[in-house]
Amino acid sequence: MFEKLMENLKKNPPLVHNITNYVTVNDCANIVLAAGGSPLMADDIEEVEDIVSISSALYINVGTLNSRTVDSMVKAGKKANELGLPVVLDPVGMGASRLRNESVNRLIQEVQFSVIKGNMSEIKALNTSCKNSGGVDAQEEDIIVDENIEESVEFAKKVARKFDCVIAATGAIDIVTDGKRVSIIRNGHPMMSRITGTGCMSGSVIGTYCGSNKDNIYEATAMAAAAMGICGEIAYEKVERMSEGTGSFRRYLIDAVSLMDYKTLKEGASIETR
Amino acid sequence: MFEKLMENLKKNPPLVHNITNYVTVNDCANIVLAAGGSPLMADDIEEVEDIVSISSALYINVGTLNSRTVDSMVKAGKKANELGLPVVLDPVGMGASRLRNESVNRLIQEVQFSVIKGNMSEIKALNTSCKNSGGVDAQEEDIIVDENIEESVEFAKKVARKFDCVIAATGAIDIVTDGKRVSIIRNGHPMMSRITGTGCMSGSVIGTYCGSNKDNIYEATAMAAAAMGICGEIAYEKVERMSEGTGSFRRYLIDAVSLMDYKTLKEGASIETR
Amino acid sequence: MFEKLMENLKKNPPLVHNITNYVTVNDCANIVLAAGGSPLMADDIEEVEDIVSISSALYINVGTLNSRTVDSMVKAGKKANELGLPVVLDPVGMGASRLRNESVNRLIQEVQFSVIKGNMSEIKALNTSCKNSGGVDAQEEDIIVDENIEESVEFAKKVARKFDCVIAATGAIDIVTDGKRVSIIRNGHPMMSRITGTGCMSGSVIGTYCGSNKDNIYEATAMAAAAMGICGEIAYEKVERMSEGTGSFRRYLIDAVSLMDYKTLKEGASIETR
């Protein structure tokens, strides 16, 4: 399946509209290009519908949300729904503030998302609107590990069914599910959390892969999660070998995404499907 | 001529005021520094006049324009005109939305630009306000190649005369013209379009080179286009040799700009003048 | 002392809330992570109090200030004061515009800062509201050198007492003082001023180190200034050895911060205390 998805990406490079935060926006644009797409980054409410209309997918990330951009996100999301484009949501820091909870809840009510991607604390806050005091990182007790994998999978499936979308719960282990099928992905490296933007870039890669594979959103999302994890492993290997730091890690991560192909994916992916 | 322009840059390092998009703003600031200038990045309407007043050049880029910054751009541009500073416009994505067309048209009506730089789709949209559905990349049929070079040159000259400015139409081949003189520049590498910000950085380098060479805007613009192209070639060579990806390419590109000197420029430039 | 401060950083990694400019915001987030903390970057007035409430320190940087964010900065600063968190101010470009002077003066009146960090032109403008026409760089006559070190120290001490905070006046030589104690730090390399964001990153590192060392603000600030200087030296050494440019320098600088430990700090720091 992944071979076909990769081919589609090559044959129909997607235009990916990103409405995202100003912290990692440059990383998002670069990773869309590295992944084989072309990024569009407009966020003014007066033009988001025009931009969505020429796009293949929409990625919404609330990292540094404000009232101006939330309105743009809703408008863009509705237009994308109208046109049948994949729409990916990254509810960054969900649970960390009232504004964040209200904005994300509004987005979820007004827009039908194809994929929602977040760490387990964000996914939990999504479901319960509970308080998450860990900021943008997952709370200790929410991190997906082998000990809690069964209940994590069940929880992710439940949320996927509730919002009728694919859930990508990311962490040391990633869970991707459409409510029925499940991919448990054991790729990646802890150093990925020592640079900013890894999560946002994963979201943009999901948007890119889905943009060329509208009929296989679940598979494209699992492929993106595995690909990012493999790239994290490749980047860490280089950093380790040369005794380098996080600045170099970031560069190697983007390098690896730009060099990703089916062979690397196939050999590197550690995916358990259920 | 370039030798003299380079000397002026060293002798009078310019302060370059950039009002630009939040995607590649960091790249723009870094490339101004790499090119030998000092960047100023203010965009609030209450301070742009103060900032223009201490600057040597102004670079305006509409990449992620919104109503707030368009007003600042107009105000800054008028002040720069009043003070006789070079003003460079980058009409990113011109043609991709109504807001973009209206904003750029307003800028062109209210501000006299010294240089307008864009890919051929943007330059065409500038002239005709026609629809450009390719987003921020040039449409297939607009890319400057040897087959359409004659008509592309004539078109660029016409637009330069119409707006009484230097036009830099960039692509696989760059055309720089003041409406009479023409430089056709065959430098660069396709990998430049696989990172975000190459175009924006080119605009900032034009602003930097013009900032120290106010009486030679046409020549300084041609020099900037050639220099960026050569740096793209140098960066690609390194990436190729080491089998690296786009993250490394970006680093080598900035490295090369920071190491650019007259010797490298003279040996590497492939410029046909008419 | 530094050994203890470093241990605290490891034992209690701080959540650092940064309200900063959109030019170097990505560098700030990455350097907080590199320095051992976790960055929070929210700036909407509706959520800054919630975010401050889960943070260990607040860093305010006026690089691209506008009316929207100044209100958020004041609100966040007051909340941080209420909670007893360290608050660091970076008055970027102070003196370069009326808006900047008024905004920074408002911040200083409404918020009690723990540390104010800037180049000597900014620190002077802070004290006198005098005009600074050099943009974001220090004026020639304000640069701290051995010839003016005595009067620079006395001036910094006076400003520290006036604002009842630690002053970090940065440049070729850094002066850190709480009005009584003084650290004169001779680390760093001129190439640090050839990339954007060095100053902003220093501010974020101060915020990070202070976040885990609330009872030793003066020492943590001196340690941050020395650490950044040492990292600049390490980065320059690599660039020099490989004949690389400013793009590589930036990467090595972030690498070095992420690899900084007590041993490197102890061996590399050149600090004269008074």
SSE topology sketch:
The structure is a homotrimer of 274-residue chains.
Chain A: H1 2-11, E1 15-19, H2 25-34, E2 38-40, H3 48-53, E3 57-61, H4 67-83, E4 87-90, H5 98-110, E5 115-119, H6 120-128, H7 149-163, E6 166-170, E7 174-177, E8 182-185, H8 198-211, H9 217-242, H10 246-259, H11 262-268, E9 271-273
Parallel strand pairs in A: 1-2, 1-3, 3-4, 4-5, 5-6
Antiparallel strand pairs in A: 6-7, 7-8, 8-9
GO molecular function (chains A, B, C): ATP binding; hydroxyethylthiazole kinase activity; magnesium ion binding
Cofactor (chains A, B, C): Mg(2+)
Binding site for ATP (chains A, B, C): 117, 170
Please state the oligomeric state of the protein chains shown. Answer: homotrimer
Question: How many E-type strands of chain A?
Answer: 9
- The overall pLDDT of chain A, averaged over residues, is 95
Order of helices and strands of chain A: HEHEHEHEHEHHEEEHHHHE
Largest sheet of chain A: 9 strands, mixed
Number of domains as seen in the coordinates of chain A: 1
Put simply, the count of helices of chain A is: 11
Distance between the termini of chain A: 16 Å
Helix content of chain A: 40-55%
Describe the structure.
The structure is a homotrimer of 274-residue chains. Chain A is an alpha/beta fold. Chain A has a single domain, classed as UDP-N-acetylmuramoyl-L-alanine:D-glutamate ligase (3-Layer(aba) Sandwich). In chain A, strands 2-1-3-4-5-6-7-8-9 form a nine-stranded mixed sheet, with helices on both faces. In chain A, strand 4, helix 5 and strand 5 form a beta-alpha-beta unit. Chain A is globular. Chains A and B meet through helix 2, strand 2 and helix 10 of A and helix 5 and helix 10 of B. Chains A, B, C: Its EC number is 2.7.1.50. Chains A, B, C: Pathway: Cofactor biosynthesis; thiamine diphosphate biosynthesis; 4-methyl-5-(2-phosphoethyl)-thiazole from 5-(2-hydroxyethyl)-4-methylthiazole: step 1/1. Chains A, B, C: It catalyses: 5-(2-hydroxyethyl)-4-methylthiazole + ATP = 4-methyl-5-(2-phosphooxyethyl)-thiazole + ADP + H(+). Chains A, B, C: GO terms for molecular function: ATP binding; hydroxyethylthiazole kinase activity; magnesium ion binding.
